[in-house]
Design brief:
Pfam families: RHH_4. The protein is built from three helices and two strands, in the order E-E-H-H-H. The chain is of the alpha+beta class.
Length: about 80
């Protein structure tokens, strides 16, 4: 798994980690900054909207959509 960067977060009271390529983390960092969310806040929102999609896949899909100009994720409101 060379080239992946792992980040840990607590989601719904459970510790988990996500390993993604640095380019995806760079986009996700921009998403979080644009929405005023911490890393944990962004991961929570992704988790809430991903359905049955694996978390790492949901992160990659969001990064691709955001990089392509799709800002619909910004319209989702957290349950908190």
């Amino acid at each position: 798994m060379s080239g992946l960067v792992k980040r840990s977060v607590s989601l719904s009271g459970h510790a988990t980690s996500v390993a993604l390529e640095p380019a995806f983390w760079a986009v996700l960092d921009r998403v979080g900054a644009a929405l005023g969310l911490s890393h944990a806040g962004l991961m929570k929102r992704i988790d809430e909207t991903r359905g049955r999609t694996p978390l790492a896949s949901a992160c990659r899909l969001l990064a691709l959509a955001w990089a392509g100009g799709d800002r619909s994720f910004a319209e989702h409101r957290s349950s908190d």
